[in-house]
Amino acid sequence: MDRASQALARGVPPGVSKLYRGLADHSGQKAKDQQHLRDYEEKALLNFLLQLSDLGQPVQIKFIPNLAFCLARHRIESKRPSKPPSKNWSASFHKRYPEAEARRVQALDWNRHEKHIYPKVTH
C-alpha cells in the first residue's frame, strides 16, 4: 500500500479539514495527478544531476525546470503536461532531494572586472 493510501486509511485527526486537500496537507502527500514528474522521472533527473555534479559541472537552478519539462514531454501525448513546472518547483525538488547539487548564478559586480562595458553600454 502506498503512502497516500495509508494516510487515507488512518482517517482524519481532529481539527484537520475532512477534504482530500486537508488530509493531503496533513500527511505530506500530494495527489499523483498534481505532480509534474512521475517518481521514475524524478529519479532519472536526480541521477543526471548527480552525474553532472560528479564531473564538477553542477546545473544552474534556473535550468532544472526546463530539464523536468523535457523529461515530461517524452510521455504519451494524452499524459503530457501542457506547460513547464511552476517557478517554485525547483526549490521543492531540492527540498525533496537535498543531495542534488545545483548552483545559483549571481550578477558580476561592475567594479570587479577590469574591462567593464558600462561606458560602451551608456554610449
Structure description:
The longest helix has 16 residues, at 39-54. The protein is elongated, with a radius of gyration of 20 Å. The protein is mainly α and 123 residues long. The mean pLDDT is 76. The termini are far apart. It has a two-stranded parallel sheet with strand order 1-2. The chain folds into two domains: 1-34, no CATH class; 36-122, no CATH class. Helix content is 44%, strand content 3%. It has helices at 3-10, 20-27, 39-54, 64-72, 89-96, 118-122, and strands at residues 59-60, 102-103.
Tally of individual domains: 2
Percentage of helical residues? 40-55%
Poorly predicted parts: none
Number of helices: 6
Strand order of the largest sheet: 1-2
Question: What's this entry about, in short?
Answer:
This protein has about 120 residues and is mostly helical. The protein has 6 helices and 2 strands, in the order αααβααβα. It is elongated.
Keywords for this entry:
single chain; 123 residues; mainly alpha; 2 domains; two-stranded parallel sheet; 6 helices; 44% helix; elongated; DNA-binding; DNA binding; HTH CENPB-type domain-containing protein
In terms of topology, how is this protein built?
Elements: H1 3-10, H2 20-27, H3 39-54, E1 59-60, H4 64-72, H5 89-96, E2 102-103, H6 118-122
Parallel strand pairs: 1-2
